[in-house]
């Protein structure tokens, strides 16, 4: 996958008129250079998603997932701040649910 991403990036940049474009050579361990995503994606439909809009598991009320597995895909930028925002949002929701006796 990394080889294909590199080749595609070089192709795009060259087509845009850049010259002497070289792709990155070398590999990092899993998670070191790319952010793995997916596994328990968010959504409204229990049949097609694992988490609701609060990153809460549809089937296990006290399970919240706020890492990259909640995303079905990502762009080419670092998603860490988005993870932190989703975590803060999920914690706020869970706290309110706990105080209301719903969790």
TrEMBL record:
Keywords: FAD, Flavoprotein, Oxidoreductase. InterPro entries: FAD/NAD-bd_sf, GMC_OxRtase_C. Residues 33-86 form the Glucose-methanol-choline oxidoreductase C-terminal domain. Gene3D superfamilies: FAD/NAD(P)-binding domain. One of its GO terms (molecular function) is oxidoreductase activity, acting on CH-OH group of donors. Pfam families: GMC_oxred_C (PF05199). Belongs to the GMC oxidoreductase family. This is GMC family oxidoreductase.
